[in-house]
Amino acid sequence: MANLRFEVVAEAYKKKPLEVITPVERPSEFFGKYVFNRAKMYKYLPADVYEKLIDVIDNGTRLDRNIADAVAMGMKKWANENGVTHYTHWFQPLTEGTAEKHDAFVEPDGKGGMIEEFSGKLLVQQEPDASSFPSGGIRNTFEARGYSAWDPTSPVFIIDDTLCIPTIFISYTGESLDYKAPLLRSLQAVNSAAAAVAQYFDPQVKKVTCNLGWEQEYFW
Questions:
Q1: How far apart are CA 43 and CA 114, in angstroms?
Q2: For residue 58, how many other CB atoms are within 10 A of its CB?
Q3: Alpha-carbon dihedral of residues 55, 60, 65, 66, nearest 10 degrees?
Q4: Which residue, 19, 62, 128, 177, has most beta carbons within 10 Å?
Q5: pLDDT digits (tens, 9 = 90+) for 134-154
Q6: Left if phi > 0, otherwise alpha if psi is -120 to 50, otherwise beta: which for 199?
Q7: pLDDT given at position 114
Q8: Which residues have C-beta within 8 Å of that of residue 154, sequence separation ≥ 6?
Q9: What is the pTM of this model?
Q10: What is the pLDDT of residue 214?
Q11: CA distance 52 to 63
């Protein structure tokens, strides 16, 4: 591991700075342009679907699968307008890196042809090849399947021609195979405990949001 670190540092010194062209537009014109944020949700989703999705994001309510198709349709329309041709479930497996499974916006029509489609089923869940990821001894060989599931609390974004959908990654039997699922569970546990304490002072408190970040100051 020590040699690997030195090799990484040596490789980093070989990198040349890239020329960064300053945008001519005002920051307000391009900030979040390729993120499916609330403004995009409000524009591309029906009003009732927007309200339900925001309730999921803000209050942690259960995602209604009935709205998944409408959300997928709105995402696809926005993505197509930005030149997107593929989508991927983006996750953080136990390999100290990230992983993706790319698919095109096409599905077999059962008649030897193809149709352009991006349904709620494809948005909510994918099945990457989990046999190549660490199992931690929790799975039998025939249970090597792993599933990526959409995390609505993280915004969908575009890189080049691909719609990137942040997801969690779990095993066939439900155990976490990534770093994000345990984080979300921890946030939920902190929310439940902190909200219960806060309600002693204000009964109207329904949720406590945690923010993670590196400490930027040192105290002597």
A1: 29
A2: 12
A3: -20
A4: 177
A5: 554 555 655 667 788 899 999
A6: alpha
A7: 61
A8: 166
A9: 0.76
A10: 60
A11: 8
> Which of the two residues, 66 and 164, has the higher pLDDT score?
164
Residues 6+ away with beta carbon under 8 Å from 165: 87, 88, 89, 90, 123, 150, 156
Distances in whole angstroms, Cα of residue 202 to Cα of each of 61, 183, 208: 21, 27, 12
Q: For residue range 82-125, list pLDDT tens digits in order.
A: 999 899 999 988 877 888 888 888 776 667 666 677 888 888 88
164-171 mean pLDDT: 90
Q: Where are the alpha helices (DSSP H) in 82-200?
A: 120-124, 180-198
Q: Work out the angle between the directed axes of helices 68-81 and 47-59 (0-180°, nearest 10).
A: 100
Taking every pair of Cα atoms in the chain, the longest distance, rounded to a whole number of angstroms, is 72
Phi, psi of 212 (to 5 degrees): -105, 140
Point out which residues pair with 169 in neighbouring strands: 148
Could you give the CA distance from residue 33 to residue 79 in angstroms, rounded to a whole number? Answer: 11
Helices (H), the chain: 2-13, 27-30, 38-44, 47-59, 68-81, 120-124, 180-198
By the 8 A CB rule, do 169 and 180 touch?
yes
Q: How do the residues of the chain divide into helix, strand and coil, expressed in percent and rounded to 5?
A: 40, 20, 45
What local confidence, expressed as pLDDT, does residue 14 receive?
Answer: 84
Residue 103 burial (10 A CB sphere; 0-12, 13-18, 19+):
middle
What is the structure's pLDDT at 136? 47
